[in-house]
Specification:
The chain is α+β, with helices and mostly antiparallel strands. The protein folds into 2 domains: 140 residues; 118 residues. A 6-stranded mixed beta sheet has the order 5-4-3-2-1-6, sandwiched between helices.
Length: 268
């Protein structure tokens, strides 16, 4: 399985793009891959496969009904390929995406899939799409999209910070408990450097610059992030993950100070 992973992932991406483009053939879709998959940061056992589909014509209800179950359909046809369940993203018209107006939207997420009328695409995702996104099908329409300004990135860092304060006071026995530390590291990196890089690169930068109050916690998070499959049966790692609440909040204190400094700088 280890040697076959690149093949299975490429096969899943190819099959997914083929199926989506066939379903939306009359809608002139542009299909993009972005996120960890194009930042050389994808790791099976942790990462998702992020895609965005922007169309010229509105997705019909019949098309949406077909697309919303596409992940499961492809997985059922190739149960030996674990990558189909990892796709996340949205499908909607380019005009609605740009104007943030109501539309027929197919949404795939960690919690499931649904047909809805809006799609949230934050400034971090937009930077990743514009800087590193890979066009998989159709016309490249990124010239019609706007690169987020620094203030927009700061606002989304603050939203992440508020989520960390609200939801990461305590942690569970999960790899994703380490993810809070990586989120904070990327927030600090973005505030300091004004751009977006992979969470792994940001966390390494934070360690190199001695910006984390608990080196061991972030260093361990990086080790798990770089090779999650090696820790699947490591009970000590999961025991440790369950105790990270305090370390996360102390690291969030540093992010709070960074946000305060940026706020003062912007006002001046």
């Amino acid at each position: 399985m280890w040697k076959s992973e690149p093949y299975f992932r490429q096969k899943a991406v190819h099959s997914m793009v083929s199926a989506i483009s066939e379903s939306l053939a009359d809608n002139q879709p542009s299909i993009y891959l972005y996120g960890s998959s194009v930042l050389d940061d994808f790791r099976l056992g942790w990462s998702d496969i992020d895609i965005l589909v922007l169309t010229q014509k509105r997705v019909s209800q019949a098309q949406a009904q077909e697309l919303v179950i596409l992940r499961q359909k492809l997985l059922e046809s190739a149960p030996e390929n674990p990558y189909y369940r990892l796709f996340e993203g949205g499908m909607l018209t380019l005009s609605a995406f740009c104007s943030q107006t109501s539309d027929c939207v197919v949404y795939w997420g960690t919690s499931g899939q649904r047909i809805t009328d809006s799609y949230l695409f934050d400034s971090f995702c937009m930077v990743e799409l514009l800087q590193n996104g890979q066009l998989l099908y159709g016309q490249d329409i990124r010239g019609q999209l706007k690169m987020p300004e620094y203030q927009e990135l700061c606002a989304d860092v603050r939203k992440h910070y508020e989520g960390i304060r609200k939801y990461a006071q305590t942690t569970g026995r999960s790899f994703y408990s380490f993810g809070w530390l990586l989120d904070i590291a990327r927030g600090i990196y973005t505030l300091r450097n004004g751009t977006v890089v992979s969470k792994t690169e940001a966390a390494q930068w934070v360690l190199d610059n001695n910006l984390c109050p608990d080196f061991n916690a972030l260093d361990t998070a990086l080790k798990v992030r770089r090779n999650p499959m090696a820790f699947l049966n490591d009970m000590q790692i999961f025991d440790y993950a369950e105790t990270l609440g305090g370390e996360i909040q102390r690291f969030a204190d540093m992010l709070e100070k960074e946000l305060e400094a940026v706020s003062v700088s912007i006002k001046n």
